[in-house]
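Dear colleagues,

As part of the handover before I leave the project, I'm documenting each prediction I ran so the next person doesn't have to rerun anything. This entry is a single chain, and its sequence is reproduced below.
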Amino acid sequence: MDAKAKQAEIAAILGFTLPTGDLKVNRGMPFINKGSKGVAWQFSITGCVKRDKQQEVVDAIGDLSLAYCEHWGMSKEEALLGLLKASALLSRSVNLSKTKLS
């Protein structure tokens, strides 16, 4: 079971301020329970750390899927389908190589 934390605890773990935390929630930071008057927000520590790291990568390199689509002349859906197929093939290849080693 994943550990839960309040917004101030998530901010301390990830090193940002409470106002930045509000912005992160508005931009998709996952939460378990939305806060209300007198009730604190609850966040999944693992989910928030994962989302924060993913966002750091996107901020650093940008959204490469759009560049990929433009380069190969395909829709974003076609590009994503191709990536899913490649991921499935890679996963299958890794599983087969583990089977052969056993």
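Residues 64-101 form one domain. The longest helix spans residues 76-101.

All the best with the project,
I.
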